[in-house]
């Protein structure tokens, strides 16, 4: 590094030493003379030289290096305090490979420029070695040789050289033939290169096209050396030509392949992003990924994969990404959600692979994203269907178990009572016969109730029962329901009410619009449960009141209560509380209540405590009828 500013030298040194991808051995010089000495002794890979030095112009360093370098471009980066186009052009002409404006230099920019130059320099050096080897190999192959006498302008070709130009030796007519066969667009380039070799110390190296008599175009590469007299005047130029058409075709194929790759990269219906090693943000993204996420190309280049990933899915990818970076795996594939610019999410399948250098260092990560939202939706629907089928199977199994249990016992009772009456009819008293017949009737009624409940649920589910409101006296409706249930059992139901601006009186009436059938099914099942799960000596509280636009029914008992672990499945068909013991039941009452309330647009809430009882509150929308 040749720069008179100690502060700048230290700053640039810090930048380079901080680069984790490359190790640098830095040599410093504060003057042109010191820099030249280091160059001759150390032959560094890269030189950073300021054009403004105390003891001369830094461009002189390029002039000094040129004869000592065996490649056309020198491994030199020119540093300038300010941009000067003339100086830049002059530096490039002298062989500099790059230039940097000091005020624009950043750590990343400097490291990137130096690494790129080193890579390019090494590539050119390797290319030179390969070229030398190729030349040695071609000496024993078909290489054309030519000899030009500058003083007499006599041009001599050997047979191989004539073949390279597509002519027979007998048709060769010196310079005239050469000029006729060279592509017209390349003549000025060749003449300029020849003049530089004649006036300077450089050998002639030139690539050009020739047109054969059959109009075939071939690419040739020529090398030549100038022989000079004692005064340094050019006397003779001797050179070789060889066909590089295949090489040019390969280069063209490579360019075409790169173009095709670029088109595929942009047009393929899969989102693609490239991430450079040690750089958090995207290095390159294609059009499809931009369209998927709703970002412009420039907007997306400011983001990274984490910033477009659903927060809940970050932990899913993190360990895989860490393994890929560490080299433990070369690729991975996951399904995750991506966040669009508008905040929406979509499902994508990410396939990630890593690209490493010859030393195993990580260069790039490539991620390919395919939108699988539709597939995910199908999978979710299938999962829901499977869950529903599973529930249906469980329900069917539960129903079979329940039916076999709930129907077997009543049928046994009926069979036993019938058999006794039939076998001992002549011996049984009238009272005993009546008792057996009563048991049969009650058992049949119990079984009929189970079947009616099932049919009720099925009718509601199949929309065979419609919501049909009609003007009804609420107080009278509740009184009739109370009396009907009391006659069936041994419990007392205490009914009370509180109306808006009214007191309890036997003649009190409140006409409201509701479906009496659905409401009776609802309240009857709640009251029946309260009676069933309460001791016989305890009464059930049945209370009615009003809220604006609502009828409120509240039923309280002091029974066994509902365990909290049963609350979630309380309204599932055939589900019964875990503490019901031997109390008969099917588990359909609350299902009927739920279906009826749904048709009625009503709501149900309950409070329950084990051993202390349950309070159920029903709210029904209503329209008062004057």
From TrEMBL:
Write the Enzyme Commission number(s) for this entry. Answer: 2.7.13.3
- Alphabetically list the UniProt keywords: Kinase, Phosphoprotein, Transferase, Two-component regulatory system
Domain Histidine kinase positions: 402-624
Domain of life of the organism in this record? Answer: Bacteria
Q: Which residues form a coiled coil?
A: none
First-level EC class: transferase
Keyword Kinase found: yes
> CDD domains attached here?
HATPase, HisKA, PAS
Q: What is the protein name stated in its UniProt record? A: histidine kinase
* Gene3D superfamilies (alphabetical): 1.10.287.130, 2.10.70.100, 3.40.50.2300, Histidine kinase-like ATPase, C-terminal domain, PAS domain
NCBIfam families the record matches: sensory_box
What reaction is this protein's catalytic activity? ATP + protein L-histidine = ADP + protein N-phospho-L-histidine
Q: Where is the PAS domain?
A: 130-201, 257-328
Matches recorded under SMART domains = HATPase_c, HisKA, PAC, PAS
The PAC domain is annotated at: 204-256, 332-384
The UniProt record lists the Response regulatory domain at 1-117
Recorded GO MF terms: phosphorelay sensor kinase activity
Q: What is the lineage of its organism?
A: Bacteria, Bacillati, Cyanobacteriota, Cyanophyceae, Synechococcales
């Amino acid at each position: 590094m040749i720069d008179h500013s100690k502060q700048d030298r230290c700053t640039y040194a810090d930048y380079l030493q901080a680069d984790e991808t490359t190790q640098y051995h830095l040599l410093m010089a504060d003057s042109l003379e010191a820099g030249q000495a280091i160059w001759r002794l150390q032959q560094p890979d890269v030189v950073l030289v300021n054009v403004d030095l105390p003891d001369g112009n830094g461009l002189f360093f390029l002039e000094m290096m040129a004869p000592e370098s065996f490649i056309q471009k020198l491994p030199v980066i020119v540093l300038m305090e300010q941009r000067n186009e003339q100086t830049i052009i002059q530096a490039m002409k002298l062989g500099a490979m790059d230039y940097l404006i000091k005020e624009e230099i950043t750590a990343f920019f400097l490291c990137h420029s130096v690494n790129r130059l080193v890579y390019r320099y090494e590539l050119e050096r390797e290319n030179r070695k390969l070229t030398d080897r190729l030349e040695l190999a071609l000496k024993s192959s078909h290489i054309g040789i030519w000899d030009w006498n500058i003083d007499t302008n006599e041009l001599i070709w050997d047979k191989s050289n004539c073949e390279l130009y597509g002519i027979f030796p007998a048709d060769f007519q010196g310079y005239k033939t050469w000029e006729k066969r060279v592509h017209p667009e390349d003549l000025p380039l060749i003449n300029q290169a020849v003049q530089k070799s004649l006036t300077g110390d450089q050998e002639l190296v030139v690539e050009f096209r020739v047109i054969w008599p059959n109009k075939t175009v071939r690419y040739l590469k020529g090398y030549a050396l100038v022989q000079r007299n004692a005064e340094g005047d050019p006397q003779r130029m001797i050179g070789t030509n060889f066909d590089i058409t295949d090489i040019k075709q390969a280069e063209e194929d490579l360019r075409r392949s790169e173009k095709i790759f670029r088109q595929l990269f942009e047009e393929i219906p899969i989102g693609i992003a490239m991430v450079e090693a040690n750089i958090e943000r995207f290095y390159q993204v294609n059009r499809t990924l931009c369209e998927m996420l709703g970002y412009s190309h420039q907007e997306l280049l400011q983001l990274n994969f984490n910033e477009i990933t659903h927060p809940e899915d970050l932990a899913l990818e993190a360990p895989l990404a860490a393994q890929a970076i560490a080299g433990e795996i070369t690729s991975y594939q996951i399904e995750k959600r991506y966040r669009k610019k508008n905040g929406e999410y979509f499902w994508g399948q990410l396939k990630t692979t890593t690209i490493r250098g010859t030393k195993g260092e990580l260069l790039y990560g490539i991620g390919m994203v395919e939108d699988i939202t539709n597939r995910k939706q199908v999978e979710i629907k299938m999962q829901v269907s499977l869950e529903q089928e599973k529930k249906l199977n469980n329900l069917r199994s539960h129903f079979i178990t329940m039916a076999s249990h709930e129907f077997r016992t009543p049928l046994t009772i009926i069979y036993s009572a019938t058999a006794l009456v039939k076998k001992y009819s002549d011996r049984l008293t009238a009272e005993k016969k009546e008792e057996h017949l009563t048991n049969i009737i009650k058992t049949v009624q119990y079984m009929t109730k189970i079947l009616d409940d099932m049919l009720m649920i099925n009718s509601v589910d199949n929309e065979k029962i419609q919501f049909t409101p009609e003007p009804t006296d609420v107080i009278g409706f509740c009184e009739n329901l109370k009396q009907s249930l009391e006659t069936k059992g041994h419990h007392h139901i205490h009914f009370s009410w509180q109306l808006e601006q009214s007191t309890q009186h036997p003649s009190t009436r409140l006409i409201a619009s509701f479906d009496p059938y659905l409401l009776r099914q609802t309240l009857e099942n709640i009251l029946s449960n309260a009676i069933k799960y309460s001791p016989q000596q305890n009464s059930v509280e049945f209370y009615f009141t009003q809220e604006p636009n609502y009828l409120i029914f509240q039923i309280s008992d002091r029974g066994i209560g509902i365990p909290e672990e049963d609350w979630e499945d309380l309204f599932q068909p055939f589900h019964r509380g875990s503490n019901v013991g031997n109390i008969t039941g099917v588990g359909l009452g609350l299902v009927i209540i739920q279906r009826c309330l749904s048709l009625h647009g009503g709501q149900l809430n309950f409070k329950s405590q084990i051993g202390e009882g349950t309070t159920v509150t029903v709210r029904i929308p209503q329209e008062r009828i004057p």
